[in-house]
Amino acid sequence: MTTQFAKIATTVASLITTISGPSVPASFIMPTSTILRENSAIVEVIEQTTYVIQDTGTEAVASEPYKLMSVKERVMNYFTDTPILAEIARCESHYRHLNEKTGEILRGTYDVRDVGVMQINEHYHLKQAVRLGFDIYTLDGNMAYAKHLYEQKGVQPWSASKPCWGKTSKELAKR
Fold first, then answer.
1. CA 159, CA 35: separation in Å to the nearest integer?
2. Integer angstrom CA distances of residue 78 from 14, 82, 132, 141
3. Cβ distance 30 to 67 under 8 Å?
4. To pair with 129 at 20 to 30 A between CA atoms, which of 5, 15, 47, 150?
5. 114: which strand partners?
């Protein structure tokens, strides 16, 4: 790797941190395209996120294959095959995973043991989630455990918010 290539990798890492801030989880960054060519390298910039940087030998050029995605976009993409879960996320958390004021995990208004975008209740589900390898405090883990719950119990774990998503679920069933 050339010195110039190393410098641009450092610059990309710095720019991403500046743009997204240190409190924005890497999982909020999603590729819009993939660039894989012969003289390219993948550089680990932030946890779980990679950026492609071309080293043409004479000049290093960073590609721009990433964009910030909102939690709503992430939820909608993740639950494409189970749209009722996306609707439940809207009702349970308004597509928020973190508390906007504190940056901490979003907790329920009525029960502070409900956490994250899917408002998974720690009292009922934390031990099982951990045993199965899900981290309900991350956006990905929260959604994955919600999908697991849905496969096991349907919409029952979110029955308290059914007045919000119930009408939509009937419309989704018609599709």
1. 44
2. 29, 9, 19, 11
3. yes
4. 47
5. 121
Distance, CA of 83 to CA of 12 (rounded, Å): 35
The pair of three-digit structure tokens given for residue 62, joined into one six-digit string: 């960073």
Token couple for 134: 């899900």
> Distance from CA of residue 97 to its chain's centroid?
9
CB 91 within 8 A of CB 80: no
Cα distances from 122 to residues 107, 119, 155, in angstroms, run 10, 9, 17
CA-based torsion, 115, 118, 119, 121: positive or negative = negative
Domain segments of the chain as ranges: 3-68, 71-174
HSE on the CB side for 101, CA within 13 Å? Answer: 1
Q: Tell the burial category of 152 from Cβ atoms under 10 Å away from its Cβ (0-12, 13-18, 19+).
A: exposed
Most confident by average pLDDT, 56-60, 125-129, 165-169: 125-129
**Spatial CA neighbour of 106 closest among 124, 123, 119:** 119
d(CA 119, CA 68): 23
**Phi/psi-derived region of residue 168, left when phi > 0, alpha when psi is between -120 and 50, beta in every other case:** alpha
The model's pTM is 0.62
Asked if 73 contacts 117 with a C-beta cutoff of 8 angstroms, the reply is: no
DSSP, res 57: S
